[in-house]
Structures are given as C-alpha cells and as structure tokens.
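Appendix B. Raw example, untouched.
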Amino acid sequence: MEEQTASSDQRPAETAGESAAAEADNDSPEPTIEGLQAALTEAEAKMTASQDQFLRAVAELDNFRKRAGRDIEHARKYGIEGFAAELLQVRDSLELGLAAEEASIESLHEGSEMTLRLFSQVMEKFGIVQIDPQGEVFDPLLHEAMVAVPSEAAPNTIIEVVQKGYQINDRLLRPARVVVAKAAEENSGDTA
C-alpha cells in the first residue's frame, strides 16, 4: 500500500507540472482570426510575386532561345558574306579577261597572273594559307603521298608537289598531294 501511495503522490505532482506548462502556453497570445487572415494575405501576395517572377523568367528564357536560333540561322546563311564579296573582284577580273576580243597570249597570261594574285590576296585576308611543301620532309598531317619513288634525295623528302594543299586558320582544308623519295634500291647480283 505504501507503494500505491507513493505512486499516487507522484501523479498529482506530474499533473501539477503539466498544468503549469499548459498555463505557460496560455500566457502567449492566442492567434486571432484577423491575424491569421493578415498572414494568409501576406503569403498569397508573396506567392503571386514569385509566380510573376517565374513567368517573366520563363518568357525571357524563351525569347533568348528564339534570338539565339535566329542568330545561328543568320550566321549559317550569311557567314561567308565577306568572303563572297571579296571573291566578286576575282570574278570581275576573269570576266574582263574573257571579254577582251583581240587579246594576245602575253596579255592573257599577264591578266591571269594578276587575277591569281588578287585571288591569293583574298584567300590570305581570310586566313587561307597555301601548303607548297617542295623539298620538305613528308608530314602525314599536312601531306598525302601519291607515290614513293627511289631517289637520290633523302628518304621521306617531298620531291614533287602534284597538287598544293590549303589550311584555314591552322585547320587543314586539303592536304598537299605529293611524290615522296624513298631510299634507292641497290641492285645486287644475289637472287634468292
């Protein structure tokens, strides 16, 4: 029985502690309907502002994508406009040469040289460089060997340029087609 008394003595103390905590909670101001409505109105205003910002950001991103698409299409269509305008000078020069009815071989040759110089200047202006590797060592990154022939020249030396190559801003457009020297074969009387 003493145990029951002790446990019942503890219960009122626990109940008293719980009621003290409940009273402490009651001391804080109870939210009013007006306060809750004001908080709700403020939250709705923040949500509306956030939605507006989101929609503006989405619209701005969509406009950016459209502008970028137009710019890419414009670059694709008109990217070589400057190069084409310069090439028109070369065409004009060729047309003038063909229009000459009584031209001598010398004047046609001179006109062709001038047109070739003009064309070389246009290519140079746009970063197109000629690869003329006569006498150089064969480089498979820049040259295409058409044939290797026995020669007195050092092996792997270019002895003839069949077709010149071209680079644009250090990027290969067309390799130079070349004939490469290989070691001269020695004829020995041995047959196996």
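End of appendix B.
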